[in-house]
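Fig. S4 source data, part A: sequence.
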Amino acid sequence: MANSTSTSNSTFPILPEGTSLLPGIELCFGLTFIGVNLATFLMGILTLQVYTYYITFPDDEKWRKVVIGVIYVLDLAQSACTFDLVWWYLVRNWGNVAATLTIRKSYGLYLVFGTMVIGICQGLFLLRIYKLNTMLGKLRRYVVPPMAFLILVAFTFGMTAAGFSLRREKFAGGTVGKFAAATIALWLGSSVVVDISLATVLSLSLRSQRTGVRRALITRLIVYAINTCALTSIVALIDIISAYKFDRVRNLDILCTILLSKLFSNSLLASYNSRASLRSEFAQGGNISDLASSTISTSGMVVTSMPGKPADSDSTVRFENETIGPKSKISTKRDN
């Protein structure tokens, strides 16, 4: 019995409360564990948003519904990878110092899935800007291609960082570690530039339409655009700063990276699902009479007027494939 007790105590030592068997584990994986929990919470919100989208907008284009499904599956796969990371480092290899220095394949895979989600979301936001022909007009050809190039650059850097993680077996320091950190920083930095550019162009384009559509509605759309950019950009900037300014063992940068794709996908779904409230705004007397021969596409909503006809007589509000006919469903009365 004594031997049994001795063996048990040597295998599972009794430590004072608050003392870890592996000193520094809370600094090394504490924030990663918190990030996985927060990402799980965001995944639950995304699940609800995706369900709401498919129920509320069954008439959307098939390609859009497929893309939303792909984004959800990719986010789900990324969540599975982060669960594997927590299980591997904190459960399967708990107390194993050597294991904390190895790079689990799921680490590289979660970067792959996250990069794909961010790239797809940014592409859909760019498509929204491409449909604008009010303020941009012919300038669209000079605005959209550079932004598409930036999205491609960000995607390339993200995949490069993911590929680097998949090829390496251990976390590296020195020149190799700096190269990996620089690649991730370039990915996130390019993503920030894309976000700010998308929000700026979209906001300026919407601002030019305030004379036609009720100001409160356009102001709300501008706020949506800015909020979409602000949250993701702030998290990405914190990610970059923490990777260089603070001790990397704290893993604040990994926490931000885990959350980033979930923030993008939730922002995208929130903008699509906001069409229900925007439809209500128009139904309550939104003025679209001054939008002759123009189209605005934002948050999945399109406002059109028939070319060559008075806007008051044949104005139409269309939400993707769903059209609310002239005068019978909305008011086109001019605001005084």
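Fig. S4 source data, part B ends here. The beta strands are 295-298, 301-305, 315-319, 322-324.
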